[in-house]
Specification:
mainly alpha; 13 helices
Length: 267
């Protein structure tokens, strides 16, 4: 099941007692296999994009770029806080200036002006090779990291992405040339769902069941706003901001309940 189809698929499964060994044993380390899975998908997507670019077929390259993107969006609850160097190399999207490296630099080459056949394939292929290299290093770093030792950093990333979804990502589209920003944001809310459900929810259920229910409702609300829109231009940004603000406030409270510090957020 997926969030987009069910509204809250994974969390419903976990509520039934599946996916974690027990409430008492649950910890950030229970999220690590999910992180490894998405990192491996990111590597595979980058490799497939390289192959598509080598073919010289612009349409095939565009499709490969589109297929590659969701995996890394699922990593955004932890990539920027736990692995900032890899995050900058793979997913930089500076405001007001084109990305010079990473997935969004390739996006501009393949989609700007809508003319895939005129893309600079040599430049795009070099950028894709660099993304593949960084994605492999990212995957290895995840495999070597003790997620339980980075509970604070993971909570910071989770809360930060929830905040970004209602603020920075509402101020500018993340993937403007391919017109896939709304898909990025939907993958982000699924990532929030996955991370909260696997890393923090079981312990919070023990500490404060009412707060867990509030966070569950917040995620459903924000997902509903994102899923209701037919495109980025039609997204109810005010409603997304309100839902994001509520989710962030509850996650900040949850941090205290779990013995962690509230995340410091960028405006």
């Amino acid at each position: 099941m997926t969030l987009q189809k069910t509204g809250y698929g994974l969390l419903c499964v976990l509520a039934a007692g599946l996916g974690v060994a027990s409430v008492a044993q649950a910890a950030p380390a229970d999220y690590k296999p999910m992180a490894e899975y998405w990192a491996s998908r990111a590597v595979a997507g980058a490799e497939q994009l390289e192959q598509a670019l080598q073919s010289g077929n612009g349409v095939r390259a565009q499709r490969a770029w589109n297929a590659m993107r969701p995996a890394y969006e699922h990593c955004e609850t932890f990539s920027g806080t736990m692995f900032p160097k890899a995050d900058t190399a793979i997913d930089q999207h500076p405001v007001g200036a084109p990305a010079k490296a990473g997935e969004h630099a390739i996006e501009r080459l393949l989609f700007a002006g809508g003319a895939a056949q005129s893309a600079d394939f040599e430049r795009a292929e070099a950028l894709a090779a660099a993304v593949t290299k960084q994605a492999k290093q990212f995957r290895t770093a995840i495999e070597q990291t003790d997620f339980n030792a980075h509970a604070q950093t993971l909570m910071n990333g989770l809360t930060g992405l929830a905040h970004e979804l209602g603020h920075a990502k509402m101020a500018y589209p993340e993937s403007p040339f391919s017109n896939t920003s709304l898909r990025d944001y939907r993958n982000n809310i699924i990532a929030i769902q996955e991370t909260y459900a696997l890393a923090f929810r079981p312990q919070l259920q023990q500490e404060n069941g009412a707060l867990d229910q509030a966070i569950t409702a917040d995620i459903i609300r924000l997902a509903g706003v994102l899923n209701a829109a037919s495109g980025y231009a039609r997204l109810d940004k005010a409603a997304a901001r309100q839902a994001s603000t509520a989710l962030v406030a509850d996650l900040q409270e949850a941090a205290g309940q779990l013995g962690l510090q509230p995340a410091e957020l960028e405006e």
